[in-house]
Design goal:
The protein is mostly helical. It has seven helices and no strands. Helix 5 runs antiparallel to helix 6. The structure holds fe (ii) ion (2 copies). The site of one fe (ii) ion has 7 residues, from helix 3, helix 5 and helix 6.
């Protein structure tokens, strides 16, 4: 720990820097990582979330079968939550001085997950579970990467990660309750 005197001296320097680097926005001198790398990583997650929004929306509208109503609602709710993740990531990129990459061109190659329509309800549930498991692994890696370097981004990612784990759990529950009755889903 620094002595109180030197801490005060540090405060003077801190104030001086804050005044002279206004164009840097929220990215201050002690930002722990390379901000360009952080933005590039976050933009991969942005692409992943867009693909997840589109896949869940498609499933929410196109799912058929006797027991599809509750599942459709679940898909629609997940689509809304994936869109919230997209917003959180895009806002953070903006705070870091970058631009969220929302360009449809090349979207699938930037995303970690895939867009698969699925043949029937069980297929759809499986595809979403696969995508959620990929998202979980990706966000866990990112949380480790940001660690102490950028705690604000880490906290945002942890929040998203917790919700992806809930999503995976929801899809697993649906799979267990529907896979046993494949005749109902055709
Ligand atoms: Fe998400
Ligand atoms: Fe999710």
């Amino acid at each position: 720990m620094s002595k109180p005197g030197s801490f005060l001296a540090d405060i003077k320097e801190l104030r001086r820097r804050a005044r002279h680097q206004l164009n840097e926005g929220a990215v201050t001198e002690n930002y722990g990582g390379k901000v360009e790398d952080a933005i590039a990583l976050l933009n991969h997650a942005v692409a992943t979330e867009i693909v997840c929004v589109l896949r869940y929306k498609f499933h929410a509208i196109c799912a058929t079968g006797l027991s599809s109503e509750g599942v459709k609602e679940e898909f629609a709710q997940h689509a809304t939550e994936e869109e919230e993740h997209l917003d959180l990531l895009s806002e953070r990129i903006n705070q870091l001085g970058g631009k969220p990459n929302l360009d449809p061109e090349g979207l699938l190659s930037r995303a970690a997950t895939e867009f698969v329509e699925g043949e029937n309800l069980v297929d759809m549930i499986k595809e979403n579970l696969v995508a959620e498991r990929i998202a979980i692994e990706t966000y866990r890696e990112m949380v480790r990467y940001f660690g102490d370097k950028d705690p604000t981004t880490r906290v945002i990612l942890e929040r998203i990660l917790a919700q992806e784990e809930e999503h995976a759990n929801d899809m697993h529950d649906l799979l267990v309750s529907h896979e046993g009755h494949p005749m109902l889903e055709k």
